[in-house]
Specification:
By secondary structure, the chain is α/β, with parallel strands linked by helices. The chain has helices at about 15-25, 50-60, 80-85, 95-115, 135-140, 150-164, and strands at about 5-10, 30-35, 70-75, 90-95, 120. α1 (about 15-25) links the parallel β1 and β2.
Length: about 160
């Protein structure tokens, strides 16, 4: 079987992410959606808005109809996770040229750490090309309608989070 890992924070998962997963399922037998855990002392400036448990729940609920998708979490280097799972293919979504620059740098660094890695870049459909999790959070924070951007379960989490 051909496996691929689609890593990310999924903070929250959007229809753009789901579109990339659906495309990956046309290429691979199984796609593992690997949700990154970011510890409080993480040096990354990217701190998740939703807890790990919330993100896992939203991703699982959003993908429950996709039988060949597995949802997992990982901490630390992606290449270490790939080794543990015995998978060498990574899916990455690209929306714009700026995404490519960052993703290319990450792919080259990961290849240096794990020469067996293959990175497959997939673009979401045009209707989701501009979409990002941070944009969705910003719209939701202003009480905007995000129903065109995220599944209903994510909408509920966003409404609840911004009601507090």
């Amino acid at each position: 079987m051909k496996y691929a890992v689609y890593p990310g924070t999924f903070d929250p998962i959007t229809y753009g992410h789901i579109d990339v997963i659906e495309q990956a399922l046309t290429i691979f037998d199984r796609v593992i959606v690997a949700i990154a855990i970011h510890a409080q002392d993480d040096i990354s400036s990217k701190r998740p808005f939703f807890t790990l448990e919330e993100r896992v729940t939203m991703v699982k609920e959003s993908l429950k109809s996709k039988e060949r998708v597995e949802v997992d979490t990982f901490e630390g280097l992606l290449v270490d996770y790939l080794r543990r799972r015995n998978v060498n293919t990574v899916i990455r979504g690209l929306r714009a040229v700026s995404d490519f620059d960052y993703e290319f740098q990450m792919a080259m660094a990961n290849r240096r750490l794990f020469p067996q890695i293959t990175v497959v870049f997939l673009m979401p459909r045009e209707e989701y090309f501009y979409l990002s999790s941070s944009m969705v959070r910003e719209i939701a924070a202003q009480r905007g309608d995000v129903s065109h951007f995220v599944p209903p379960v994510v909408q509920r989490y966003l409404v609840d989070k911004f009601r507090r």
